[in-house]
Amino acid sequence: MVRNDQLELPLGPDSVVWQQIWFPRPFPEAIALGVLRQWASEAHAPQLILEARSSTKGVDYLIGSQLRYAKTVQRTIEHLVPGSQVSQQPGDRGPVSIARRVQPSSRVGYIEPEDAVASTRSILLALMAVSGSEQLVLQLELGARRRPQALPVELPHQQQSVLSKVLEGIQPETRTEVKQALGKKLGQHGFEVTVRIGADAATSDRRRILLLSLASALGTVNAVGVHLELRADDPRRINTPRSRSSWALWPLVARGRHLAASEALWLTAWPVSDREEIFPGQGSLHPRKLRPTPALSTGERIVAQANAPGADRLIAYDTTDACQHTWIIGRTGVGKTEFIRSLIRQDWEAGRPVACIEPKDLVESALRCVPDSQKDNIVVLDPLDDFPVGINVLDRLQTPDNPSGTPPEIVADQLYHIFHTLYGNALGYRSGDILRESLKAIALAENPSLIMLPMILTNPTFRRPLVKRAIERDPVASRNFWMDWFEKLSPEGVMNHIAPLSNKVRPFLDRYMRGVLAQRHPRFNIRQVLAEGKSLMIPLQPGILGPERAQLMAAVLMSELWNAIQERANTPAHQLRPLMVYVDEVEMFLNLPVKLDDALATARSLKAGFHLAHQYGTQLPPTMLKAFQNNARNKVCFNLGVDDAKAMAAGQTVLTPEDFTSLPAHHVLVQLMRQNSVQPWTSGITLPPIEESGDSTKLSDPDDIRARSRARYGRPRAEVEAEFMELLEATARAKERQTGHPGVHGRRHQRRRQP
């Protein structure tokens, strides 16, 4: 088995080296002929050897040349054949044990198959007759070049015998078809070509069968007046071709025949066709395998391993590119979760903070690959945990990014927009007014909590101190709402007005919801993700929480994260720590308090990169889909449905919908940004799971990571519930002191005491 790196050293400029060629499909005839004409017209006439080698894996195309010309040959092919690829390290060239020379029966006949594509298919089918370790080779050695020339005025008869020439003299050629054939041959660029076929198999009978089958297939190019004949040859001429620096002795050594470029083309077995054709030994047409640009080989975040022929390198982009957002789309079971986990692992290894929200098992999977350096920085916010990590969305905590805190009006407005995003017009004008003013008042409380929201609406004793503070802060707006309207309502009027709002507020009182969103003294603030480089992992399971509660919690958490991102607006760009945000099943969880288009555009400038994953386009609201198309500049496509494939293929000529619909699992077609420039589509295979590396040191125990998170950031659920009960009981005691009767509405009690 001989490879370039196994040739006898040292290699000199005249040493014959081999390169492998991958042709595009379709491979138009005009382009293929252009390559051969280029070689035939080169003044220095380099030695070129074309091979089609078959094994059970398929047919490989090789080209041999002197080392001094190897780069020129590669450049010629890749420039003249768009989409072609040439590798300087081809596969093994196994030796053949039997060889035959194939030559035309006539020196003037013109080889012209009746159906060129069918002939190519027959030749490739014969090459693919091998089994096991057998090999079959078709070799063309392109020798001395032939320039186009006109027919001679007096053309001698091409079939006149020597005896006839002696006895009768040279007779002129009178056959029109012979003149036409010779005119085609002489009128083109051409070569002196030696065609050989060789085989290697276990037995002589098998070798003979393979050779005869290939010879018969080559016979499909026969034309009127010319056919191909077999002659004995030395296998060593295939196995170890000699380097030739001169063509002076070529006719004597190689016994080549003059072939026009078009004749030689049909003997190469190249997959030439103006349309997409399925050829034996060439694999499927789809998905196309596209080589990455050099820029995609230098990024720090690895997306995939390139699978294009001859492209043994990684596909990657930088954090800056990722901040232009990544759209991950593919049907279920194609490898999206493992792909996202790989990116998260890379972020952790680089020390970048991560925020991840998802409904299935991505978080659990990611917790199996936490680097040692990040194990104490992972915050697992799981509402089902008995030691839930909580956040207080009403807490106006001062941070380096937000030294003055957030005004209660802004806090209230941010929370109001969460409700409006979820419920839209169903929230109603009056309910929205009540909600906004109630949130403003609660934000002024000491250790505020969302659990206070239903209390401020239904409990006057609890409400009045908060209303007093609200009026003191804003005597115009707050007095007008509370004193001039709400406090004048009868108990029945209060209930009638808050009833439409109650069913939207009530989910916050759910056991799992309040354990996270209503903690009055949480040990974690979501701004620590940005300020301290923490990673926030949020598993939300709609099957247990319920879809509505899962979406509500996701909306609150995403809103808080978004607010924290926006608070960095005054921080110098060079001081911003990049944040990678991952949202799986994005149609369920991406509810931001601003338009998504604006959010993605703003996030880019604040160094927050969103990775948005889902299964198909019709899952998304039209506005969300449009935002992805316009603002997610990085696209990672797994296997797609027909409609999504058509949408991705629209507006380009490189890929077709079939390329997207035929992707196997873990295979991707990606279009990435590099240095603010959109790179061409490229293909690859996502990185294998870290478990397959065999390096147990790269694995972590999810239970250990959760335990660390609980110890640092969680609180026992019983303790959190006790705080809620303490608040309720304190309010009840205060109410009892005022009314003398527990649980009775103050206004109604006062009316009963009136005479």
Describe the structure.
- Residues 686-716, 730-755 are annotated as: Disordered.
- Residues 698-707 have a biased composition (Basic and acidic residues).
- This is Type IV secretion system coupling TraD/TrwB family protein.
- Residues 744-755 have a biased composition (Basic residues).
- The structure is a single chain.
- The chain is of the alpha+beta class and 755 residues long.
- Among the domains are: 4-148 and 188-265, Vanillyl-alcohol Oxidase, Chain A, domain 3; 717-753, no CATH class.
- It is 39% helix and 16% strand.
- The protein is built from 30 helices and 22 strands.
- The strands form 3 sheets. Strands 11-10-22-19-18-12-17-16-13-15-14 form an 11-stranded mixed sheet. Strands 1, 2, 3, 4, 5, 6, 7, 8 and 9 form a 9-stranded antiparallel sheet that branches.
- The protein starts with 15 loop residues before the first strand and ends with a helix.
Task: Report a brief summary of the structure.
With 755 residues, the chain is of the alpha+beta class. An eleven-stranded mixed sheet has the order 11-10-22-19-18-12-17-16-13-15-14.
- Rg computed from alpha carbons, rounded to a whole number of angstroms: 38 Å
* Count of alpha and pi helical runs: 30
Helix content: 25-40%
Q: Average pLDDT value?
A: 87
Gross CATH architecture of one domain: 3-Layer(aba) Sandwich
Q: What fraction strand?
A: 15-25%
| Estimated structural class | alpha+beta
Strands, count = 22
Protein name: Type IV secretion system coupling TraD/TrwB family protein
Organism: Nocardia mexicana
InterPro entries: P-loop_NTPase, T4SS_component
